[in-house]
Design a protein that fits this description.
six-stranded antiparallel sheet, about 350 residues, globular
Length: about 350
């Protein structure tokens, strides 16, 4: 277990620019072992330093070296995704008898909130600070009625909390004045070697899921929930990511939503035998999308100074099921006026 001196907890904020008349901030949350760097453009994790078995800190998430590069972030490095993470079929859904059409930005579907989703927006830094137990920042974004086609003015907040046990908590809340679908997630890509190993094919992955949402060739759920047993998607015990990654040629790797079981156990455990780093993910979300950077091609040289290659990292996106507004038997994602959207995910770091 990593050791932390809780007195080292700190939260700092510096302004590095301005965009559309709003300040751009870099926020650093730090304890003696883990450092998290964030920006309020997209409420984005830009770097996350964690120690290996020798105590050496490396940045284990994908990101740009220059924070201004996040103005164009087509891979969604580290950002907060919304209003709706993942895909909505044809960009269409019906709420309270009215059909809404969202922009389609991915193979005829609506993906990750559209062309100008939450990842492109400047979030207001509401509060940052530290105590003996944690360092934290709260960011807020008000999404106007009709933005990207969604109904209702939605006020969304994300709170990042680094505690004295090397756990990064991400807490989402939102409220609306019209019924609207909501599913927010963080889109960090992890390579626990700190990209010292260019691929994550030797990483071990465990997922607390016996089933997944079957999908069509357009990456949209068919509505069927099917077993992982006997498929390349069986991660019910620690399994090399590279063991079956080439058995899904249509997706070029993994890009699937798993149906999570008990929230008391980790939703996923990612282990890197090379560095000894381990990431445990806990969540109250019903699903987790596993995406293995299937279209990275080496054109981006990341913050670590290494080119980002196909299968160079894995995104573990805790979220609602894709296309839930169009599947009545999926967990409900419609937020109504007077209700509060609350979701909580934890990234817990350790070494083996």
């Amino acid at each position: 277990m990593l050791n932390v001196n809780s007195r080292a907890l700190s939260a700092t904020r510096i302004q590095y620019g301005e965009l559309r008349g709003a300040p751009l901030y870099m926020i650093t949350l730090e304890n003696a072992a883990v450092t998290v760097q964030l920006i309020n453009l997209g409420a984005t994790i830009t770097a996350l330093y964690a120690p290996d078995k020798a105590g050496i800190q490396k940045n284990v998430v994908a990101g740009f070296s220059n924070p201004l590069d996040y103005l164009h972030n087509p891979a969604y490095f580290g950002c907060t995704v919304g209003r709706y993470a993942n895909r909505i079929a044809g960009g269409r859904f019906i709420v309270e008898g009215r059909e809404y059409q969202l922009p389609v930005n991915n193979d005829g579907n609506h993906l990750h909130g559209g062309f100008e989703g939450f990842h492109t927006r400047i979030w207001q830094v509401i509060q940052s600070g530290q105590s003996d137990e944690e360092a934290s920042v709260i960011m807020e974004y008000v999404s106007a009625d009709g933005e990207e086609g969604y109904p209702g003015t939605l006020t969304a907040r994300v709170q990042y909390v680094l505690d004295d046990r090397n756990q990064l908590h991400i807490r989402y809340t939102a409220h609306t004045d019209k019924s609207t679908p909501v599913s927010m997630t963080n889109h960090s890509y992890f390579n626990l070697s700190g990209f010292e190993q260019p691929l994550i094919t030797e990483h071990l992955l465990t997922i607390n899921a016996k089933t997944y949402t079957e999908k069509s060739d357009r990456n949209i759920p068919t509505g069927n929930i099917v077993p992982v047993s006997g498929t390349p998607l069986d991660f019910t015990r620690a399994t090399r990511i590279g063991g079956h990654i080439h058995e899904i040629p249509a997706d070029r790797g993994f890009d699937h939503n798993f149906v999570l079981q008990s929230a008391d156990a980790p939703a996923a455990i990612l282990e890197d035998p090379y560095s000894g780093r381990t990431l445990r993910i806990f969540t109250d979300q019903p699903g987790i999308q596993v995406y293995t950077a299937n279209y990275w091609d080496g054109n981006i040289k990341g913050q670590q100074g290494k080119p980002y290659l196909k299968h160079g990292a894995v995104a573990l996106e805790t979220q609602a099921f894709p296309d839930s507004p169009n599947h009545a038997h999926f967990p409900d994602t419609i937020l109504s006026p007077g209700d509060i959207y609350r979701r909580h995910t934890i990234f817990a770091f350790d070494v083996q």
